[in-house]
Write a structure and sequence with these properties.
The chain is 43% helix and 16% strand. It has 440 residues and is an alpha/beta fold.
Length: 440
C-alpha cells in the first residue's frame, strides 16, 4: 500500500545532510513494510537485520563500534558485500540493542556514504531513557497509522483524494460527491488506519475480520506494556489504557486520574502515562487559556485530554458493535462524539501538527476542542459529530482573541460565513493547505 512518508524517504536519500535515519512509530503502523518497499525501489540491494527476531545481532556491536568492522562482519554474515550509496542497510527493532543505537553516531561520523535506516516500535520510549544516545547524529521521521487520504488510495478511491487535495477555497462540493465522501469517512471511522486492517478490508470488505485484527493489535500492545517495565508500572499502564474510552465518553472529557483508579494521583501514574505517550499509543492534548505564540508556553500540563493513536482501535476498545456501520450517521453520534474528536486529533498529528491543544476560557465557561499553530496562524477548531451549525464556542473565543479564521468541522459541506468556515470532517487532513491558499 502507498504511504505518504515514502516521499520523505526519497528526500532523505538525496539530501546532502543525510545522516542515519531513525523511523519512529507505534507497533504495526507499517514501518518494516515501508522501509523494505523503499529499499527495493530505490536501491540495488537491501540488507535487513532484525534485532528482535535475531537477538544475536547484538554481538556484532560488542567488541567496538567501528563502522568498517561492523559492516565487514555484516557482509560476511549476509554473504554479500554491502556497498555505499547503492545499498540500503535496515536495522529493525533497534531499541533492543543499546550498542547498535549508539553505533549510529559512528556511522554518521566515519561512514557517511553508507545509507543506514533504523526503526523500532518502542523506539521513542527507549530514547526517552537513553543517556548515551548520539543527539544530532541522526535524522528522524515518524510513521503514524494511515490517514483518511491514504485510506482513500488503499480502497481504490484515489480520485476522491485528488478532489480533496485540489480544494483551495470554501466553495461547496457537488452534493453527490459530498455524500460519497461521508460514506467513505463512515467506513474509515470503523476500519481506522492500521495497515493490516486497511489491507484486509480493501481485499475482502469483511468488517468482522477487521474487528478481530483490531483486537489482535490491541493484545500485542498490552503484551508490550510489560517490556522492560518496573513491575509497579505494568498495571498502571493497563489502568490508563483501559480508561481512555470511558474518559472520551464523558461530557467533559478531560483526563482524570481518579477515574483510572479510586484515589489515584497524577504523580503515581505519570511514568506510565509518559511511556504510553512515548510508545506512540496515545496523544496528549493539553489545555491553554491564552492564544499566543508559542502555545506550548501557555499550556497547562496538568489539564489534558487523551486520544488513542487510531480511531478504529478506539472503536474496538469501546466495544462498538460491528453492525453499527450499517446504521448511517448513528456511528458519528455514538459514544458522545468521541470517535470524531479522536479522528480529528489523529489526522492533524499525522499531517504534521506534533503539538495540539484545546482552549478553555478562564473559569472554564467556554471550551474549544483544538488549537494549533500553522504558519503565522493559531487555528481555533470546533468539532461536531453531526450537521449542527451553531458556533457559540467559536464566537466566545473570537470575542477574546483576534483570529483570521474560525474553523468548524462537521458533516456539513464546505462553506464560509464571515470568519466562520465549515470544513467537512473528511477534509480535516488538508485544512492547513486550504487556509494557506485562502490567506495568500
Amino acid at each position: 500500500m502507498k504511504r505518504d512518508l515514502y516521499h520523505a524517504l526519497l528526500t532523505w536519500k538525496a539530501s546532502s545532510r543525510r545522516k542515519p535515519l531513525l523511523l519512529k512509530g507505534a507497533r504495526q503502523t507499517g514501518k518494516t513494510y515501508l522501509l523494505k518497499k523503499f529499499g527495493s525501489d530505490a536501491y540495488d540491494r537491501v540488507f535487513y537485520f532484525n534485532f528482535e527476531e535475531e537477538p544475536a545481532m547484538d554481538t556484532f556491536f560488542e567488541r567496538n563500534l567501528k563502522p568498517t568492522r561492523i559492516l565487514n562482519e555484516l557482509s560476511i554474515y549476509s554473504e554479500a558485500d554491502i556497498h555505499p550509496e547503492t545499498d540500503l542497510v535496515i536495522f529493525d527493532e533497534i531499541q533492543v540493542s543499546d550498542r547498535a543505537l549508539n553505533a549510529l553516531k559512528y556511522f554518521q561520523e566515519e561512514a557517511p556514504t553508507y545509507h543506514i535506516v533504523a526503526a523500532g516500535s518502542l523506539l521513542s520510549a527507549k530514547l526517552s531513557r537513553s543517556g548515551s544516545f548520539p543527539v544530532g547524529k541522526v535524522n528522524f521521521l515518524n510513521l503514524y497509522p494511515m490517514t483518511f487520504l491514504e485510506f482513500l488510495d488503499a480502497v481504490g478511491s484515489s480520485r476522491y483524494r485528488q478532489l480533496l487535495e485540489d480544494i483551495d477555497h470554501f466553495t461547496p462540493l457537488s452534493e453527490i460527491l459530498h455524500k460519497d465522501l461521508i460514506d467513505l469517512l463512515r467506513t474509515y471511522y470503523f476500519i481506522g488506519g492500521m495497515p493490516e486492517a486497511v489491507s484486509h478490508f480493501s481485499e475482502t470488505e469483511n468488517h468482522h475480520d477487521v474487528r478481530e485484527i483490531h483486537q489482535e493489535i490491541i493484545n500485542a500492545y498490552i503484551l508490550d506494556f510489560a517490556r522492560q517495565a518496573p513491575a509497579s508500572d505494568i498495571p498502571k499502564r493497563m489502568h490508563i489504557w483501559d480508561s481512555i474510552p470511558k474518559h472520551l465518553a464523558g461530557e467533559n472529557n478531560k483526563f482524570k486520574f481518579s477515574t483510572v483508579k479510586s484515589g489515584a494521583r497524577a504523580r503515581e501514574y505519570e511514568n506510565a502515562m509518559t511511556w504510553l505517550e512515548d510508545a506512540g499509543l496515545i496523544y496528549r492534548v493539553c489545555s491553554v487559556e491564552n492564544s499566543r505564540y508559542p502555545l506550548q508556553y501557555y499550556a497547562d500540563r496538568s489539564a489534558f485530554k487523551i486520544y488513542v493513536l487510531d480511531v478504529g482501535l478506539l472503536g474496538a476498545m469501546a466495544g462498538l458493535p460491528v453492525d453499527i456501520l450499517a446504521q448511517g450517521t448513528r456511528l458519528f453520534n455514538e459514544y458522545e462524539g468521541a470517535l470524531v474528536e479522536n479522528y480529528v486529533a489523529q489526522q492533524l498529528i499525522s499531517a504534521g501538527q506534533n503539538e495540539l491543544y484545546y482552549w478553555r476560557s478562564k473559569g472554564g465557561t467556554a471550551k474549544l476542542d483544538f488549537l494549533y499553530e500553522t504558519g503565522e496562524h493559531i487555528i481555533p477548531l470546533e468539532v461536531k459529530a453531526s450537521v449542527n451549525s451553531k458556533s457559540k464556542r467559536l464566537k466566545s473565543y473570537d470575542e477574546q482573541f483576534t483570529s483570521s479564521y474560525l474553523i468548524r468541522s462537521t458533516l456539513l459541506n464546505l462553506k464560509q460565513d464571515g470568519k466562520i468556515c465549515n470544513v467537512p470532517l473528511y477534509a480535516i487532513g488538508i485544512l492547513s493547505s486550504i487556509i494557506s491558499s485562502n490567506h495568500t
